[in-house]
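Give me the fold.
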Amino acid sequence: MFRSLSCKHQQSILRLFISRPKFSITSSVYGRPFSTPARYTPKKPNRNSSLIAAKPWSELSTPQKVVRASKTTVNMGVILVGVGLTSAIVYYIGSELFSSQSTTSIFSDAVDRIRDHQDIVSLLGEPIKAHGEPSRSSRRRNRRIASQIVEDRQQQPHLFMRFYVEGPHNQGTVMLEMIKNEKRKWEYKQMFVDIPGQGLPSKRIYLERH
């Protein structure tokens, strides 16, 4: 082919081949080029904050002192809030479990009085158990004992409580009322147990009556 062409034509054809743009081969699927996944580069730690924390207070500038003081204030606030919440929870639990004036202590004292009463023991049998709502469900029976504080016309507080007792032979309903004395402590005004007769007249046994 080149022999039949003149020298000028051969030179022009060679120039065309040399000057043709080179095409880059890229991998593709359905005519779309693949995108190379970007590499994850971990963020470098802030050296300024570490330097601020490492420097002594006297070597810090005014803005750096402000930053450190603000961080210290926030940390101290979080610690104080946590200590306050913990103290409140501990106080509440301690007052409920160990205070003689709490409803938990009053309930325990009333149950002890019932277990020591011979007439109630003879009707219910032993052992005597006390619980909240009368139900076969253990969740409902283990609920908090129902109690309420009401003030009369003289603004004297009265504590009312109701719970249930049962033994091998029978069961009963306990009602108690307490008022505060001159020392602002609860004392019994009345307390009784209603026991159904199971074919006989039901009985109301008073443990306290004033």
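The radius of gyration is 44 Å.
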